[in-house]
Amino acid sequence: MRRWSEMKIAAMIVGILLALAVPSTLWGTQATAAPSIQAQPVSIVGTGEPEKEYASKPLTRLLADFLKTTGVYALAHPESEGKADRFERFARSWGRLIMFGVVFVLFYLAIVKKFEPLLLLPIGFGGLLANIPVVHMTGPDGLLGIIYNMGIANEFFPLLIFMGVGAMTDFGPLLSNPKTALLGAAAQFGIFGSLVGAAALSQYTGLVDFTLKQCAAISIIGGADGPTSIFIATALSPELLGAIAVAAYSYMALVPVIQPPIMKALTTEEERRIVMPRLRTVNKREKLIFPLLIVMLSALLLPESTPLIGAFAFGNFAKESGVVERLSHEMQHALINITTIFLGLGVGSKLQADKFLVLDTLGILVIGLVAFAVGTAAGVLLAKLMNRFSTQPINPLIGAAGVSAVPMAARVVNVVGAEARPGNVLLMHAMGPNVAGVIGSAVAAGVLLSIFN
Amino acid sequence: MELHLVAESLKFMILGMGIVFVFLYLLVLLMRLQAYLIGRYFPGEPPAAPKHRDGDEAARVAAIVAAVAEHRRKRTRR
């Protein structure tokens, strides 16, 4: 019996909401009489801000006014939030509903498929909040807007993430086999190759119309490095940030799906079976000096890349120094976790329907995928070449780890290698190109910044 | 005049890949140099590497490495 009465109440609520959604003549008079709110007595406060004074209203009017502030009303009457052209009206009504669907897909990927949940979940929730009508949470005084302006608009959060990543990174495998750093360079071809691809797509087809800056921001997805992608997208074309970040993190999560077919297509069974010699043990001093080396090198060659590389090297230096365990621990845990929350929500604020539901997003997803594939292929091909000319055997598979995506890409290499020869452990050999890829994409980012600044 | 996007982006590609390779190649050289210098002037620090006797041992090490990597991946993913 109780359930029945609950259902009746629910039915009544649904009925009221439906009535609101119908652009009926019932409300028509009041809707057109919107200025009546402004017609109410207005008092001038000392600051010069006009403030609405509350005037007595009959209950029916109070109820009607309240209903007009509901989300259902706003979704059904997109023009109630100010003037809008056809696309904006669509974005504020159906667009928002579609975006709710999109963020549920993100939640599904994060929770069920475990795709980069640390980022996709906050991004998805940020997207959910960003599409809520009436309150403008992405505005300068809204939760998401504050977060965005605090640390994303000024590119601060990606740098903090980089600091934490630096504190988590072990350069031992790279130091013990330095030449694998070149594989991390080759994989950056994914960035520049897809830059040309994006430019060609804009120039020769009418499908998308990206400027050169936008092309550069999109192609950085090929670096397979989340913070770098966000850093560059914010600097070069913030309007595309949402789509770029979502694409970058989705593809990083898809590394185990995207990479193996490419790796297998470009190598022979025999090459995949190559066993690499044991890595030599690295002296502690080498690890300590290494972060200083990369900072000095970037300071001399490419100062534009020092924000990224400097933050990264600082984290790594703190870790390797061994005397500031507390700081390094916080960078790896509290700092990176808090920043991840803010970064995710802030990026999610760019998933507003009017920014995301455009053809450009589709273009970004396609170009990003190509960038990833090209980067993987370039790494594998250079590794093949190095294997021909090197005295020590190099398994070409480790070239695929040159795209950053630490440590996922290295793990994929390990799995594919073990498929060809059970017991062949390539993980540590692949970590070398993998961490070099992080440096490589930071350098590529620095080059792009230096071109446009 | 309209920018020729493809021509510009090709220039970017040459510049970008060039710089990335130069940067990382210099890094390789520096890493080799410091490995040489440190090995020469501060030797004897590395702990004795565990000797592996047979294939079983290698497989065990492989399993441990993979397990540690998996554990780390689960705990600290960015």
Helix content of chain A: over 70%
Q: Helix coverage percent of residues of chain B?
A: over 70%
Number of domains of chain B: 1
Q: For the terminal residues of chain B, how far apart are their CA atoms?
A: 44 Å
Shape of chain B: flat
Structural class of chain A: mainly alpha
Largest sheet of chain A: 2 strands, antiparallel
Low-confidence stretches of chain B: none
Global mean pLDDT of chain B: 81
Report the portion of residues of chain A in β strands: under 5%
Largest interface: A-B, 67 and 47 residues
Give an overview in words.
The complex is a heterodimer of chains A (453) and B (78). Chain A is mainly α and 453 residues long. Chain A has a domain at 155-243 and 253-452. Chain A has 24 helices and 2 strands. Chain A has a two-stranded antiparallel sheet with strand order 1-2. In chain A, a hairpin with a 5-residue loop joins strand 1 (42-44) and strand 2 (50-52). In chain A, helix 14 (226-236) packs parallel to helix 24 (427-452) and helix 16 packs across helix 22. Chain A starts with a helix and ends with a helix. The model of chain A is unreliable at 23-46 (pLDDT under 50). Chain B is mainly α and 78 residues long. Chain B has one domain (5-75). Chain B has helices at residues 5-41, 55-75. The longest helix of chain B has 37 residues, at 5-41. The radius of gyration of chain B is 23 Å and the shape is flat. At the A-B interface, helix 9, helix 11, helix 12, helix 13 and helix 18 of A face helix 1 and helix 2 of B.
Q: What is shown here, in short?
A:
The complex is a heterodimer of chains A (453) and B (78). By secondary structure, chain A is mainly alpha-helical. Chain A has helices at residues 2-21, 25-32, 36-39, 59-68, 71-76, 86-111, 117-130, 143-152, 156-168, 172-176, 181-186, 189-204, 212-219, 226-236, 241-253, 255-266, 269-272, 284-301, 306-321, 325-348, 353-356, 359-389, 408-420, 427-452, and strands at residues 42-44, 50-52.
